[in-house]
Design a protein that fits this description.
It holds the Pfam family DUF6487. It comes from Candidatus Flavonifractor intestinipullorum. Residues 5-65 form the DUF6487 domain. This is DUF6487 domain-containing protein. This protein is mostly beta strands. Helix content is 0%, strand content 26%. The chain has no helices and five strands. It has strands at residues 13-16, 24-25, 41-42, 50-54, 59-62. The strands form two sheets. It has a three-stranded antiparallel β-sheet, with no helix packed on it.
């Protein structure tokens, strides 16, 4: 699958995200805990998700489950 950067339109480089769980997305500016809140989205479910990076724009695109 080819993914284009949403900012510059260049092709992004494919890879995977690695790290310790939980990796959360949150709408909050500052979060005091890594416990998942009602509005948070868990990006890891025991697997390392596929991700694309644009090294020019410093953006990452991740498809989470």
């Amino acid at each position: 699958m080819s993914v284009k950067c949403p900012l510059c339109g260049r092709e992004m480089e494919r890879g995977r995200l690695y790290g310790k769980e939980p990796l959360l997305w949150s709408p909050k500016e500052k979060k005091r805990t890594l416990l998942r809140g009602r509005e948070d989205v868990s990006l890891f479910n025991g697997a390392f998700p596929e991700a694309w990076i644009c090294k020019d724009c410093h953006k990452v695109v991740v498809h989470y489950k």
